[in-house]
Design brief:
The chain is α/β, with parallel strands linked by helices and 461 residues long. It contains 13 helices and 19 strands. α1 packs across α5, α8 packs parallel to α9 and α12 runs parallel beside α13. The structure holds 5'-deoxyadenosine and iron/sulfur cluster.
């Protein structure tokens, strides 16, 4: 959309409220990309004069940024929307909007249109810049509006961003996905891959670092498939070479796109590029990987892991696994377990397979019975918890550079992240949030480390 039309719509919404204060409540479901999108929605809402509220009962506008990756995620949103009917009855001026991946599916939009009259608009994730225009149509003409964008949308630069934190930020570098893994809804709801220009990315990171940001994650559905005016390894090298004191991360990577050049760039910038790699395996069985359309084999995947470990010995590895993909046999699952035991991931994120309408896997035969997939999941988690704990124990006695992230749940405690992305709890004053500190690890738990701050300059590992 052109800038003039955007600004006119922002002005129209602000004018609608005039002097009256108006508040927005934004609820975000799903992944980091949605979190990043919500920061843009919030930025636009602020431009239109909205202030933030956490309580939906106090809002003039409730915005749900939704996820469609699994059925459970969608059902959670729909049940929440059901409850909003009451709010709308109490306050007829309330506007409820739904954006995010759910609203890029025609059957969901139809369902919302027909069964949820309390929803005034939907906005698919590739049409974020049309938020002011859509809202203006609702407020001024009382018109319910359902926006579904194109498969190949353009990237809109320059949208305002209201970031949640000063010291940690996401920077989207590419959007969408071309891979069509057979189980996955993402290519249908987020469209084809498109990459931002490297100059835009470098300028955004520079200005974040200048503003005191210490931990920056380059974000993309397949971040390492970035194909702007250079490839991902080159981009990473350029971003990592910017001046300032910050740690650089990236996610999520596709295992098919990890060339040696990328590993070399990571090894070239220790202390700047986090020693961390999230490399979704999904399954350890070549037969299932082929049915998933993952474009790698167990062997090539393991070779990548080996190269990463050789180049960056301290690297923290994590993965995603799908349990109970159609046709997954005991032997297939045993192969997944074998990879889990061989690689020894620091963390895994495991999901029960959830059929997604319109994806090839949804019509594949041989569903795995619920009891079987749940038993497999339990076995996986038991094995992984032991691995996570034994890897965490290796940190005990070490002193690490930790970014103090937030006050902890208990008073006087802080939570932070190690360079590898592990969670650390330690005693410290709230004034340290946003700074790098040195923490000596005293104790390991499967999902977190506990430590004590030690004086001295933070080391770089
Ligand atoms: N069912 C279960 N898990 C899924 N994921 C993606 N699609 C599905 C699905 N249909 C998982 C994959 C992906 C992560 C973000 O979600 O493991 O890496
Ligand atoms: Fe989904 Fe596969 Fe694309 Fe990842 S690479 S978003 S799992 S289709």
């Amino acid at each position: 959309m052109n800038e003039q039309a955007y600004l006119a719509a922002v002005g129209a919404v602000a004018h609608h409220f005039g002097e009256f204060p108006h508040a927005v409540c934004i609820l975000t479901f799903g992944c980091q990309q949605n979190e990043a999108d919500s920061e843009k929605l919030r930025g636009m809402a602020h431009e239109m004069g909205y202030t933030d509220v956490d309580d939906p009962a106090e809002a003039d506008l409730i915005l749900l940024n939704t996820c469609a990756i699994r059925e459970h995620a969608e059902q959670k949103v729909l049940s929440y929307v059901g409850r909003l009917k009451e709010y709308r009855e109490k306050n007829p001026a309330l506007v409820v909007g739904i954006c995010g991946c759910m609203t890029a599916q025609p059957h969901r939009v139809k369902q919302i249109r027909e069964r949820y009259p309390q929803v005034s608009f939907t906005l698919d994730p590739a049409s974020l810049d049309r938020f002011p225009e859509t809202l203006a149509a609702v407020l001024e003409a009382g018109k319910r509006t359902f926006v579904t964008g194109s498969e190949k949308p353009e990237i809109t630069e320059g949208l305002p961003t209201a970031r949640a934190l000063r010291h940690r930020a996401w920077v989207s570098i590419m959007y969408g996905c071309n891979n069509f893994c057979s189980y996955c809804i993402v290519p249908y709801v987020r469209g084809r891959e498109r990459s931002r220009a490297s100059a835009e990315i470098l300028a955004e990171v520079s200005s974040l670092v200048d503003a005191g940001c210490r931990d920056i994650t380059l974000l993309g559905q397949n971040v390492n498939s970035y194909r702007g005016d250079c490839d991902f390894a080159t981009l990473l090298d350029r971003v990592a070479s910017l001046p300032g004191d910050f740690l650089l991360r990236f996610m999520t990577s596709h295992p098919k796109d990890v060339p040696d050049a990328l590993i070399e760039v990571m090894a070239k910038h220790p202390g700047r590029i986090a020693p961390q790699f999230h490399l979704p395996l999904q399954s350890g069985s070549d037969r299932i990987l082929a049915r998933m359309n993952r474009k790698y084999t167990r062997k090539t995947y393991l070779e990548t892991v080996e190269k990463l470990r050789r180049a960056i010995p301290d690297i923290v590895l994590s993965t995603d696994l799908i349990i109970g993909f159609p046709g997954e046999t005991d032997e297939d699952f045993a192969e997944t377990m074998q990879v889990v035991r061989d690689v020894r991931y620091d963390m895994i994120y495991s999901f029960l397979y959830s059929p997604r309408r319109g994806t090839p896997a949804a019509t594949m035969p041989d569903p795995v019975p619920d009891a079987v997939r749940k038993a497999r999941m339990a076995e996986l988690l038991e094995t992984q918890n032991a691995i996570s704990l034994s890897l965490a124990e290796k940190y005990v006695g070490r002193t690490l550079r930790v970014l103090a992230d937030a006050p902890g749940r208990e008073p006087g405690m802080l939570t932070g992240r190690t360079p590898g992305g592990r969670l650390v709890h330690f005693p410290g004053d709230e004034s340290l949030v946003g700074q790098f500190v040195r923490v000596t690890i005293d104790r390991a738990e499967p999902f977190a480390l506990r430590g004590t701050m030690t004086p001295g300059a933070p080391e770089n590992s």
